[in-house]
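Appendix B. Chain record.
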Amino acid sequence: MTADPNDPQVLADLLAARLTGVLGTPVQVPDVRRLTGGASRETWSFTAHPEDGEPRRLILRRDPPGEDRPYTKGGMAVEASVLAAAARTGVAVPSLIDAGTDPAIAGAPYMIMDHVDGETIARKLLRDPQYERARAGLAAELGRTLARIHAIEPQSVSGLPEGEPLERLREAYDALGEPLPTVEIALKWLERNRPDDVAPAVVHGDFRTGNLIIDPAGLRAVLDWERVHWGDPREDLGWLCVKCWRFGSPHHAGGFGSVDELLDGYAEVAGTRPDPEAVRWWQVYGTADWAVGCRMMAERHLSGQTPSVELAAIGRRVCEQEHDVLLALGLPAGPPGEETPAPGSDLHGNPTAADLVSAVSMFLREDVMAGTGGRLNFLARVAANTLDGVERELRLGPAQEERHRERLAAFAQADQAGLAAAIRDGKIDPDDPALLAAVRAEVTDRVAVANPRYLSHPS
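Structure tokens predicted for this chain:
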């Protein structure tokens, strides 16, 4: 029987064998611990004990074993190459120890890096007093860092993917087979308002709060280069300003500061200051792209490729990005529709389905989370939050469904797909105030079920 690389002990043995060869001395790895987050790639923490040296805290990044992800097999080698090039350009990154694509080494394509002390959790970075000093200058520091990334010499890396961004976004969106009026409206706006081209550069692709290690003094390392590509450097600036990466903060640049501070810092290193309107275009693009990305991750669960409560839950975050797209286009949310509870039934008696879902959510929070740590604790929180949404849908769904049908009927459509197709085909003007009001109300109803607190986040 083949050893399972998902088994922590098997993985620890694989890492010990590999590092023995890389470091040239026998290495022991007593155990490995998977860190929370990482819906796309896995992150594991461990300590290597070389026979003739001090213990060394290391990090493993790898693709989920067993998944057929050919686009990442070459991508991991590219990511390792860019990481080294970024370090030479003065970007703070973890030191790379080893990388490869042979699944026999670590179960999947992988990178092994030095551990970097600091914090990545946005909630702590944006609120805890110990990071107050770092927050004060971080927007400008992130601008300077992005300018250094965009200054990486093209000849120092090879194999970077590239492509026309709107074509790529529409292709990924169409492949899902779930048309959304909000995304169609965003695509129309993006087509009409596209900024002039600039010289392409190395683009990190996922430069945001959560992928940065920060300590009380400031930025320590830039992580998660898996989306690195060749493209418009303003994409990174817009992505950092996407609203979901502010985590409830009113400050537009990653939750840390203003867009002006970000662009001023960028100009200090680059010598030129990007056009704020072009950065806004990329913010709208990034928000629409993340709506599609959330749905793509949910599809990995729905298709059976990667069964995961985390991936399933991410699918219900699509509406948050729809909400943010509409905000970015100047369409604020009105109050949610009237909360009319579903009519009761005596068929199944009490407790109702909503009562049962609420009880399981309470169990996950008060018992499972209280008695666990690490990734299991994280997944219990995800599951509890997901059940909260199910409970709200059971209560509010029937009244919302009635409003949904009325809105569709006003445009002679039977479903969202038909409305989306009419927008794409030009049968309905994407700037029609009646359409925008209807789509705005639809999205607000969805967020009111999925995550009602999100409606109160600063725009």
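Further analysis of this model is presented in Appendix C.
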